[in-house]
Write a structure and sequence with these properties.
15% strand, 6 strands, 2 domains, Ribosomal Protein L4, Chain: A, alpha/beta, 6-stranded mixed sheet, 211 residues
């Protein structure tokens, strides 16, 4: 499969980039994408939520009144969940949200998203995304040349330079990620994937060499 390449001025080059059909041209597997994204979202949860049960709140150690003979209902503690200042019944406790997904499923999920992006025409390859000085105006001009200024964009580059990072970090809906670290959710959560030539080659090699 061959992908078109654009320059910073927004013009299509006569040169094309050869990529592996098994990475960018497969039939997308939606269920694998679902499993991978669900696991990625679950695995970033801290799981530190907590509440105090009746054994954790202060006070309530002594039985307020005797069991029988007072005419009132029996009670063992002033901190039971039905009373003011009582503990929480069945409240959240710290837990691990980790979900395991097989390596082949995660691999197929990323290949599926990339293939879907190519089929939709929402994967753009730019010959070079190098910016010499950290100027947001220069990066905005690049997006305007490509007619992508109003899109939600994930930018994948082989090497995130400081100038490129500083030029794009203040732009709304623009996310800069090293190509080799992009997850399934990173590839999916955008309207356009903007990748430099070196980034595409990195992804192509990374997803081709895995079983």
């Amino acid at each position: 499969m061959k992908l078109d390449i654009y320059n910073k001025a927004g013009s299509k080059l006569t040169d094309t980039l050869e990529v592996n059909d098994d990475v960018f041209g497969i039939e997308p597997n939606e269920h694998c994408v679902y499993l991978a994204v669900k696991a990625e979202q679950a695995n970033i949860r801290q799981g530190t939520h907590a509440s105090k049960s009746r054994s954790d709140v202060s006070g309530g150690g002594r039985k307020p009144w005797r069991q029988k003979g007072t005419g009132r209902s029996r009670i063992g503690s002033t901190r039971n969940p039905s009373r003011v200042h009582g503990g929480t019944a069945f409240g959240p406790e710290p837990r691990d949200y980790f979900q395991k997904v097989n390596k082949k499923v995660k691999l197929l999920a990323r290949r599926s998203v990339l293939s879907q992006k190519v089929a939709e025409g929402s994967l753009w390859v730019v010959d070079d995304l190098t910016i010499t000085e950290p100027r947001t105006r220069e990066f905005v001009q690049l997006l305007e040349n490509l007619k992508l200024a109003d899109k939600k964009i994930t930018v994948l580059v082989a090497d995130v330079s400081e100038s490129l990072w500083l030029s794009s970090r203040n732009l709304q809906n623009v996310y800069m990620i090293p190509a080799q670290d992009a997850s399934t959710y990173d590839l999916l959560d955008n309207q356009v994937l903007l990748v430099d030539r070196a980034g595409i080659e990195t992804i192509n090699t990374q997803l081709t060499n895995q079983p």
